[in-house]
Specification:
The protein has a 6-stranded antiparallel beta sheet with strand order 6-7-9-8-10-11. The chain is of the alpha/beta class.
Length: 341
């Protein structure tokens, strides 16, 4: 019966988990929707991270990952309601997800939609003005419940119809987390999950947003290529010299990731030739000999051989390998070219 079934937006955070638990306590079946925008939450760099988090804490819950990467990318380029403090189009993002959820109500025979939003917790989307805009634009007026703050908001149709007991909903307000922690203990959610919230969308991060803003005009129009490029934005140090974007690995984890591009014809990969610890450097652009020499010097500058008179750098592009002997560049000069500081 649709009056006993709802769809829940789930990001991986404690609040949305609690909202689900509150509805389950009323005997309502909850079907989880996790929307993949291509931009993961800070604590979950891959979608599998969210799913692994859900399963131990919400046993028996049906989880559906909905791919909205293409739609979200179009929204990101020109959000109707603008960005937050960085590249986060929060209002437009919420409208997009809830519009998708509304379209799925008939698919799952659900009577309404819930979210884990808390009134006053996030300045851009969780205030009364934004809430009303979002509800109207997504077409869920009267059928969108925020269980953690419902008593502070207008009564919804499921409450009026008796599908949901309003008295068993909550009136949490503001940025404090005390009541959520207390509620989590009541629902026997393990401490390790209570202390690990979703961490916020990566688009709210200043450094990542600077990288994205710089690279947005150059992103591929092919969805899979674009998704790969977006992952690269969260790796290493990011630079631009003239029109050439390049990435320098910061540590072993970065370097291992960047080495995945070795042998791909679209990328040039730079590494120290000697047995000297150093970064992996990559660029996707078609590069001139001058830029190739410059990137070899940058590779040497961030290696343990930065004080040597000269170093050999191996350059791999597809199946072609070459070697350049260069003098290490100057880090302070390279720093001026960073797009993320």
């Amino acid at each position: 019966m649709k009056e006993k079934t709802c769809l829940a937006l789930f990001s991986g955070g404690l609040d949305s988990m609690l909202a689900i638990k509150v509805m389950e306590a009323q005997g309502i079946k909850v079907i989880v929707l996790n929307f993949n925008t291509g931009f993961f939450f800070k604590n979950y760099k891959e979608i599998d991270g969210v799913l692994k988090y859900i399963k131990p804490t919400l046993p028996g819950i049906e989880v559906n990952v909905i791919d909205i990467r293409n739609d979200f990318f179009e929204t990101l380029k020109a959000p109707a309601y603008g960005y937050g403090s960085n590249m986060n189009p929060c209002i437009d993002c919420k409208i997009l997800m809830l519009t998708k959820a509304k379209a799925l109500m008939s698919v799952y025979d659900a009577g309404f939609v819930i979210t884990g939003e808390v009134l006053g917790q996030r300045p851009m989307t969780q205030n009364e003005r934004a809430i009303k805009i979002i509800q109207k634009r997504c077409g869920l007026e009267g059928y969108l419940i925020r269980p953690l703050s419902a008593k502070l908001l207008d009564e919804t149709e499921p409450e009026k119809l008796g599908w949901v007991d309003r008295n068993k909903l909550l009136d949490i307000n503001g940025r404090g987390r005390k009541r959520q922690y207390e509620l989590a203990k009541e629902f026997n959610i393990p401490e390790e999950y209570i202390q690990q919230p979703a961490g916020g969308c990566i688009l709210t991060e200043e450094a990542y947003s600077k990288r994205l803003r710089d690279f947005l005009p150059d992103l591929s129009t092919e969805p899979e290529d674009r998704n790969l490029e977006l992952k690269l934005l969260s790796v290493g140090r990011q630079f631009r010299k003239d029109k050439v974007k390049f990435i320098i690995g910061r540590n072993e984890t970065d370097n291992k990731f960047l080495l995945r591009f070795k042998g791909l014809s679209e990328y040039s990969v730079f590494e120290p030739a000697e047995e000297i610890a150093g970064p992996v450097v990559i660029t996707r652009n078609a590069i001139s000999d001058d830029i190739k020499k410059f990137l070899a010097e940058a590779t040497a500058a961030y290696s343990d051989g930065k004080d040597m008179e000269s170093m050999d750098i191996i350059i791999t592009n597809g199946n072609t390998m070459s070697k350049l002997t260069v003098k290490p560049g100057v880090k302070s000069e390279l720093t001026k070219l960073r797009v993320d500081i």
